[in-house]
Structure formats: structure tokens, C-alpha cells
TrEMBL record:
Keywords of the record: Methyltransferase, Transferase
Entry protein name: SAM-dependent methyltransferase
Molecular function GO terms recorded: methyltransferase activity
Record flagged with keyword Transferase: yes
Ranges for domain Methyltransferase: 47-138
Source species: Bifidobacterium simiarum
Pfam families in UniProt: Methyltransf_25 (PF13649)
Length: 244
């Protein structure tokens, strides 16, 4: 298989996700509950995880809930190696590079804003091919730190305007998973949630469900574990479920 041409944003930083999960256990658990709720709107069935990272969430889904992740896609060699150690089949590639077989999956999931590493043209083409790869009643799920959330706004603006000094906003990020992380570790492409929903609707997805969690403002997010609630207009982490 040809080597992926997609940029590995996390080369040499393969412990980032595992370290973050240990540092922020309450946020991690809240996000996992969000993901599990979204995946189980319908029977997960055959699941493809795109942007699998190191496989932390997938391992928990498998070991605690018996959800079968049949394959992962991950452009970072370091993350993919860790996911393989957790027992997963992983293709090292970007989502836009994969040859998707028709009717191959019941659920395709982009966890942790992984779709935000595709530019608009790549995303539209990739989600179109994802639609074709889903079974007749399959679903696409994505989780995100939305641009319009308190956390998303801080991340987006500080990434967009590098003249903002770290010391001017790190107090806002203390108590989040992004405290003292590099701005190049954020996703590079941002849109409002409804932009993504409109795109998915234009590709043929017919029904949507929304869930959200971590409702506290950024400095206070690690203080408690939260169960997800319906909607997407309040949470700093959201899940969108698009049904075929």
C-alpha cells in the first residue's frame, strides 16, 4: 500500500491523547459517554472509526460494551501503532485517501473533531463516499468542539490570530484538555455545527440527532463528569448523528 501523503500533525507526539486522558479524567469520561450515546442511537453494527487516534475510546467501547470496531483509519503513524497494540486493524491514511467499499459499514464515526483536518472540498467528497459505504439504514457520527462553543471560540480565535500571546488566554484553558497545548494541535478547519449538518443533508442523510456535554465554561470543565443531553447549542463537546 502506498504511504499516506497526508500531513502527520502529531509526529513524535504519539502519547498526546493518552496523556490528555490521564490528565483530564472527568472530561474524558464525559466525552466517552457522549460518544457511546451517539453510537447507540441505532445498533452500531459494523463500525469504522476514522481518525482513530491511539484507540483509547474504541478500546473502552469494545471492552465495556462489546461494540465491534471492525477497522480504524488514522493518518498518524504513532497513533496507529498504539491503536494496533490495543488490538485494532488500522489503515494509515487520511479519510480522503481511503477506498471505501459500498455497504461495508453500519456506522462510520469521526471522533474528536477528526473531520476537521479535511478541507471543505475533501470533506464533501469524503462524506459523499462515506454515505455510499454505509448500509441501507446506516449512520455517520461525528463528535466535535464546535466553533460556536465557549471552548471552540477560544481555540479558533487564538489559532487564527497568532499575535495573541499564550499568557493572554491560558487562564481560560486551565481546567480543559487544551491547557498549555500547542496551537498547531488544534484542528485546522472550523465551521459552525449547522454548516456540517447542511452539508450532510445535501449528501442524502435524512434524519439527525444531536447530543452535548461539558456545559461549563472552559476553566471549570474538569470539575465533574457529565452525562450528555439532547441538543448542540450549549455543549463544549457535541455529537451529531446523521442517519441514512
Amino acid at each position: 500500500m502506498p504511504k499516506s501523503t497526508v500531513v502527520d500533525y502529531f509526529a513524535g507526539n504519539e502519547n498526546l491523547l493518552d496523556d490528555s486522558a490521564k490528565r483530564s479524567p472527568n472530561i474524558t469520561q464525559s466525552r466517552f459517554r457522549l460518544l457511546h450515546t451517539a453510537l447507540t442511537v441505532t445498533d452500531p453494527g459494523r463500525v469504522l472509526s476514522i481518525g482513530m487516534g491511539s484507540g483509547i475510546a474504541e478500546e473502552k467501547l469494545r471492552d465495556e460494551y462489546g461494540i465491534n470496531i471492525v477497522k480504524g483509519v488514522e493518518p498518524s503513524e504513532g497513533f496507529a501503532a498504539l491503536a494496533r497494540k490495543r488490538g485494532f486493524e488500522v489503515e494509515v491514511a487520511g479519510a480522503q485517501e481511503v477506498d471505501y467499499e459500498p455497504d461495508a459499514y453500519d456506522t462510520i464515526v469521526y471522533n474528536g473533531s477528526s473531520f476537521g483536518f479535511l478541507n471543505d472540498d475533501e470533506l464533501k467528497d469524503t462524506w459523499r463516499r462515506n454515505y455510499e459505504a454505509l448500509s441501507a439504514h446506516g449512520k455517520l457520527v461525528f463528535t466535535d468542539v464546535p466553533k460556536e462553543s465557549a471552548l471552540g471560540a477560544v481555540l479558533y480565535l487564538t489559532q487564527r490570530y497568532p499575535e495573541i500571546k499564550d499568557d493572554d488566554f491560558q487562564d481560560l484553558l486551565e481546567g480543559t484538555t487544551f491547557y498549555r497545548t500547542g496551537r498547531d494541535e488544534y484542528k485546522p478547519y472550523w465551521h459552525l455545527t449547522e454548516w456540517y449538518v447542511d452539508l450532510l443533508r445535501s449528501l442524502g442523510f435524512r434524519e439527525f440527532r444531536f447530543f452535548q456535554t461539558v456545559l461549563a465554561n472552559p476553566p471549570y470543565q474538569e470539575q465533574a463528569v457529565e452525562d450528555p443531553i439532547e441538543g448542540y447549542k450549549k455543549g463544549n463537546y457535541i455529537a451529531v448523528v446523521a442517519l441514512k
